[in-house]
């Protein structure tokens, strides 16, 4: 078990090796470990649906890509975020096969599902960090506002399109994907 003092700054390399002997998940923010709260059931259901949909599209198109839940992405010198969903090239995963699943090169797509405690993190901090990390497409699925923000990287900044209801998700990474915002949000409703 590797322990770090909560007040002490942590290097990225220390973060990759960190294990406090629990199932806690941490992000690295400006060299400090930030404990992540467990997601809501709605959050998990929506993330599962998106992952299953993206994996089905990857398989249908026979793309050399992988889709992961809760993988890490390095977003700065002393920053690493845990994504809800990320899509990467197989070769990116091959480099990490027996290492911590923290990608140091940008994924093709990252998806975050908003929970009440993650609003600022998903809309503000991750948005700027993912743009700086040159992640070309970022979706923010918001079951609180019943919308999906589709962000595409243009000249270092995200151009945002807000989608609602039966609007299709028009992805540059997955141009043939046929999903609507309603379908994604409905996945978070048990028994509906």
TrEMBL record:
Keywords linked to the UniProt accession: Endonuclease, Hydrolase, Nuclease
Where in the sequence is the signal peptide annotated?
none
Q: What SUPFAM superfamilies does the record point to?
A: Restriction endonuclease-like
Q: Which InterPro entries match?
A: Nuclease_put_TT1808 (IPR012296), Restrct_endonuc-II-like (IPR011335), Uma2 (IPR008538)
Q: Which domain of life is it from?
A: Bacteria
Pfam families registered for this protein in UniProt = Uma2
Q: Which CDD domains match?
A: DUF820-like
Q: Where is the Putative restriction endonuclease domain?
A: 12-181
This one is known as Uma2 family endonuclease
The reply to whether Glycoprotein figures as a keyword in the UniProt entry is no
Q: Which Gene3D superfamilies match?
A: tt1808, chain A (3.90.1570.10)
* Gene Ontology molecular function terms on file: endonuclease activity
């Amino acid at each position: 078990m590797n322990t770090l003092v909560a007040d002490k700054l942590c290097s990225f390399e220390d973060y990759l090796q960190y294990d406090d002997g629990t199932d806690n998940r941490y992000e690295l923010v400006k060299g400090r470990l930030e404990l992540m709260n467990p997601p809501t059931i709605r959050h998990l259901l929506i993330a599962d649906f998106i992952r299953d949909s993206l994996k089905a599209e990857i398989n249908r198109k026979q793309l050399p890509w992988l889709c992961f839940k809760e993988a890490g992405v390095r977003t700065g010198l002393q920053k690493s975020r845990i994504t809800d969903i990320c899509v990467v090239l197989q070769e990116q995963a091959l480099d990490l096969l027996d290492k911590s699943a923290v990608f140091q090169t940008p994924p093709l797509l990252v998806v975050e599902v908003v929970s009440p405690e993650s609003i600022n993190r998903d809309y503000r901090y991750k948005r700027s960090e993912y743009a700086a990390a040159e992640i070309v497409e970022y979706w923010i699925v918001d079951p609180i506002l019943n919308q999906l923000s589709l962000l595409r990287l243009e000249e270092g900044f995200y151009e945002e399109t807000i989608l609602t209801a039966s609007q299709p998700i028009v992805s540059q990474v997955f141009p043939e994907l046929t999903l609507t915002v309603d379908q994604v949000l409905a996945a978070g409703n048990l028994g509906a």
